[in-house]
Write a structure and sequence with these properties.
The protein is mostly helical and 306 residues long. The chain is built from 14 helices and no strands.
Length: 306
Amino acid sequence: MAPLANNPLELGAARGRQGALALGDYTQLVKPRIILLLVVTSYCAMVVASHGLPSFWPSLLGTVGLALSAGGAHAVNMWYDRDIDALMARTSDRPVPAGRVPATRSLALGIALEVLSFALLLDLNLLTALLSLAGFAYYVGIYTMWLKRRTPQNIVIGGGAGAFPPLVGWAAVTGHVSLAAIWMFLIIFLWTPAHFWSLALYRQDDYRRAGVPMMPVARGERATKVQALIYTLLLVVATLALYLTGVVGTVYLAAAALLGLGFVAMCLRLFGEHPPAVRRAKATFGYSLVYLTLLFAAMVLNLRTF
């Protein structure tokens, strides 16, 4: 009998496992779970802009193009942040710092995805392609390369990167950007601080070890919680202001108010938690994800034109 290492079936199975692991690593580079949330907000904006289900081709191209652009930005981020990712427990096992994917391949993948995204979205209209490119440049250039390592306001200003999807979605199906789309942008912009700082509160040792001036590290926990509360209150105002544009109805208004009160309550509860306790910070982070998803779902379910 041939040795196991020379058995064609075993060799084929081993190669298959290696290929699956490599595919998993390259998939991890683009952060698919974050892409999913971005796509949800973009598609909901498409539905609102279309006063119902959007046309198939523009919505498909817009969704795929946005996903490619976001994935490209994430891959470039993985390339640039490989040094600090290696120092943080949450990110040390990512493919680049762990050595499973060469850094240059992550960079090349990110650029290739953005080029493909721009080409696809350009087939729709120039504005959509430019907005998606702006989101890519914002995340890579302004947040990752400029702000993240320099200021505790990194996530506040840098949060604009994640707010582009509603603009992209709106432009994909209409060819322009409306006031309602701008309010959606502001909603995500104002949602980001409390969302990310709640994560930073229970991961602050990671950021301290990597030398990243995240708000809890640079300004302390109380200042972080105060600012998170302020931004959340502004967020609630922005969500209610969307109703005044006339594109959503009273069910959305009620949902926005209730979800907002819940978010404010979660932020207030943070003041009663101190290290080493982190349960409330984790719960706030989890609620923030549910909050944004349900808020945009409420926009779709309660269009005034339905």
